[in-house]
Amino acid sequence: MSIEKDVKSQYAKFFTEPDYPNFKFLAEYYFDLSAKLLTTDVKAPKNLRLMIRNIQKRLFIGIGTELLLKAVFLYCGFGINKPNSGSPSVYKLKSVDTKNFAVDNTFTLDFLISQLSKVYKFKEHSRVVKGLNVAKVFRNKEGHVITLWHHFDPQNYSDVEYSVISIYSEILAKV
Fold first, then answer.
1. If 0-12 CB within 10 Å is exposed, 13-18 middle and 19+ buried, where does residue 175 land?
2. Which among 31, 2, 9 has a CA at the least distance from the CA of 105?
3. What is the rounded distance in angstroms from the CA atom of residue 154 to the CA atom of residue 162?
4. DSSP for 54-91?
5. What Rg value do the Cα atoms of the chain yield, rounded?
6. What integer pLDDT is reported at residue 148 of this predicted model?
7. Which tens digit of pLDDT belongs to each residue from 67-106?
8. Mean pLDDT, the chain, whole residue set
């Protein structure tokens, strides 16, 4: 067994509807971390603290968004584990044989966003998708590269905020 497969097997699980509160809880934890993170919390040279704090905030927003979207899929009765073979597609949990799915691999955030309309259609769906895509970029860029500058656009944060609020008000408010 490869090292990657060995370590992934330590986290292996086929996720079902009862798992959604755990995803929601940890998403909220990351959102809370992002909201409360101060430059004084960053252990780095003083001239880098603001930049590093902002990087961490965007990373936490991105991670929280992925976990929240997975909570939505599970809450709505859709699976997040990838199939063992064939091209991935959205599936209802109650209509599948769990043996046909990878317990060590879930759908990517990109896939979940692209398939969201099959799970739930928001009142302003394209606007929700836009914010989810911004959060995906936050997570990807901050998790994979480092730039010492950033052209700040406050609309990015408003777009993510709109998406998260829509998820809560249209879906998770019932919980």
1. exposed
2. 9
3. 13
4. HHHHHHHHHHHHHHHHHHHHHHTTB--EEESSS-----
5. 17
6. 80
7. 999 999 999 999 999 999 988 999 999 999 999 999 999 9
8. 95
